[in-house]
Hints:
The structure holds two protein chains of two kinds.
Chain A: H1 2-20, H2 28-53, H3 60-63, H4 66-99, H5 105-111, H6 120-131, H7 136-141, H8 154-180, H9 183-191, H10 196-225, H11 228-232, H12 238-248, H13 253-280, H14 303-334, H15 343-373, H16 377-385, H17 394-408, H18 416-426, H19 428-442, H20 445-452, H21 457-485, H22 489-494, H23 502-511, H24 515-543
Helix pairs in contact in A: 1-9, 1-10, 2-13, 2-15, 2-16, 2-17, 4-5, 4-8, 4-10, 6-8, 6-14, 8-10, 8-19, 9-10, 10-13, 10-19, 12-13, 13-16, 14-24, 15-16, 15-18, 15-19, 15-21, 15-23, 19-21, 20-21, 21-24, 23-24
Chain B: H1 6-21, E1 48-53, H2 57-71, E2 74-79, H3 82-92, E3 100-103, H4 106-114, H5 123-126, E4 141-153, E5 178-180, H6 185-212, E6 216-217, H7 221-229, E7 235-239, H8 241-250, E8 256-259, E9 270-277, H9 284-294, H10 297-305, E10 310-311, H11 341-350
Helix pairs in contact in B: 3-4, 6-11
Amino acid sequence: MLGADSIRRGRLQARTFRSTFPVRRAPLPLLLAGGAVAGLAVLPLAYLVIRALGADPASLDLVLRPRTAVVAASTVALALLVGAGTIALGVPLAWLTTRTDLPGRRAWAVLTVVPLAIPSYVTGFAFLATFGPRGALQSILAPLGVERIPSFGGLFGATLVLVLVSYPYVVLATRAGIARTDPAVEDAARLLGDRRTTVFRRVTLPILAPAIAAGALLAVLYALSDFGAVSLLQFDSFSRAIYVQYRASFDRSLAAILSLMLVGMTFAVAWGESRVRWRAGAYAGTSRSSRRPPTNVPLGRWRWPAVAFCAGVVGLALVVPAGTIAWWLVRGVGQGEPVRVVVDAAVNSFLAGGGAALGAVMLALPVALLVARYPSRTASVIETATYTGYALPGIVVALAVVFLATTTVPFLYQTLALLVIAYAVRFLPQAVGTVRAAAVGIGPRVEEAGRTLGDGPLRAFARLTLPLLRPALIAGGALVFLTTVKELPLALLLGPIGFDTLATEIWDASSEGFYTRAAGPAAVLLVLSAATVAVLLRNEEGAR
Amino acid sequence: MRFVRPLPVLLLTSLLAAACSGSGATAAPDSPSSPDPASAPPASASGSLTVYSGRSESLVGPLLERFETETGIDTEVNYASTSELAATILEEGDASPADVFFGQDAGALGALAAEGRLAALPQPTLDKVEERFRADDGSWVGVSGRARVVAYDSRVHEDADLPDDIAAFTDPQWKGKVGWAPTNASFQSFITAFRQLEGDEAAKAWLEGIQANEPKVFEGNEEVLNAIAAGEIEAGFINHYYLMVALAEQGDSFPVRNHFLAGDDPGSLVNVASTGILNTAANPAAAQTFVDYLLTQESQEYFANETQEYPLIEDVPANPELPALDEVASPDIDLSDLSDLEGTLRLIQEAGVL
């Protein structure tokens, strides 16, 4: 314990030092830029308030009855379980693929992140088809006398599918956190006598805690906004309740009230994470060039259990959905159906995704710098505001943009530009989190040195800090790209008419049960995303 | 790190290309089919037409492409789900680019009509279908019929043994043997019809009665059908054409059949996929051509043969394995009124089903 305690004491001193060091006030242009981004992100809230105010008071009791409390509680339960699940999977996977001698480490690094690319309804459907009461697993076990498997649905099923779809956010955030830590700290603790497990538990994890929390927040909020999995698995969370309201009530007011509740929940969680992170203090490591390269932890007899763990997660998260897609494809081709060439849809997905990535990164930069360099309540408010559209179901954001665009900028309505802007704003938090963490790690000293040597603030930033931030910018952009290409409601309702993406093709075919027609676009989506993940990880390694 | 440098350039180029390309790539049209002289394209409208279709591209895409080829009207179709498109039209308001709305059910069009968004259709168009399949105020017209049925496992039951009214399925003998899809739009339209015909109390009692029989819950009608075929349940409340599509794909050995209920029972509802012209249409003439086109013999045959629905104009026969439409005694209600899905949703939730 001696080592860990010493490290903790040292960090405590560093933290106290940091909190007494005066935080400079943010330069006005940066504050305005961040405020403008926050204002853009908060616009859907204006739509929701307008709609909610138009609600018929007599039908308000429909929303304010016990059942809504049940839906809220279900949503909270789902959020907690998904948070716990993604951390339980993501942190070990991140650590195993970066700091140990796991066999096939590079391959596992890619495979554990690729599930980010799969739309949740594909995963949900694949699980039902495989593990459902009369699914593939049951037919395999039937000769052994297994008549039916217990039903796969409800809270358990929804949690499992959503964890398997969103744990890569935690993996990526934790990997980035690990890359930023100085192995010298852990070495010091070991030198002072602690065992490896103690070092991990009492030194490494606390240092990684902000990164893990940021990744878990992204995962949980994304899971809350998801509709595909919870509808398929019959779980009544807010997103499903909101969607059912839209389906049945062309009134849209009650759906708006439920959406406002969800946004309130989102703000509370995001604000809490932001303040905890602020109080935990930043860990600005030593510069990379003076760091010893980390030595990998030998796993010894834990090697094959670790491989089994990775294989299990990848098997459930990637092989089951990909296998289902492959089976649809094979079965369809066997029945003589031609495989659809979806070049147009693929190009459109790439355009939308690329534009969204670029836009999100540009919007994220001022916000991230504000929070990293000049933390304050204002900065936290701005950062929390960017989460407005992130946890809302896509249909809500889509209708908000329809309303706002047709009333304020009708010439932009149903153009690709508007769709890209909507995507960039909606998935902004993913880019903000990545860039902020990197900006904190880089620290302001390099830029200040440049300023003392005569550069103006913008020039110093562009020449010195921006190149250092580049890996994080690419990582944030790639994350937004991956999330955009599988997104459905905005593409359907905001895209220019006739603008098919891979996601809309998959939806169109599978909504009528033409699963073979869905398999082609789904396979292309998987390959496109796997390639992006590979680029993402190579970029990460190049930065280390 | 040179390999990462092309990436921002690539992204920037794609963004510029996207900004310049406007509407992006569209699907290539099918090779044009020769027009059938028996159903010459009506009216001499031209220009461009924007259709919002709640019916999926896989189902009606070929028909709409045929329309574009035969009439020469440049048709842009926005495919999404019916309710989302209706909500979008309502949000767009006067700025809506849509000329025509083609919906999966009449309720959505009823909702648009209630907000005053539909223009009245001319009487000759309305007269092509029976009164029960068009709006009372002439704001929309049905295009193809979708009958509610009780699909049943033919290995276990015979058509003659099954009850003739929907309330009989609340009997305890059906415990654990029925299935439904309560989030499905067609089911909710059926419950709305139930409320119209027999009142809210009776509808709620029916829902609670079925709920007491521990029904299996599914997300969609096709899953209900597959569950019956798999022997998981013995009966399910769905639309008629799911079975016909399955029979066409898998042959007569498919062990499910449709049971049509007797007249005046809410369970014998025939809903219609329908279409209407928006009052904000930029090209009403082309919109009218479109609506008339859907009611030509050629198009109605398409619905009969491809989507396995009921054609609604005279002299076009449905699938011979189906009972004729005039034998399907659907209850006497205005399908526009099925737009009060909100009240239905409340009832379904009060009954503890959703």
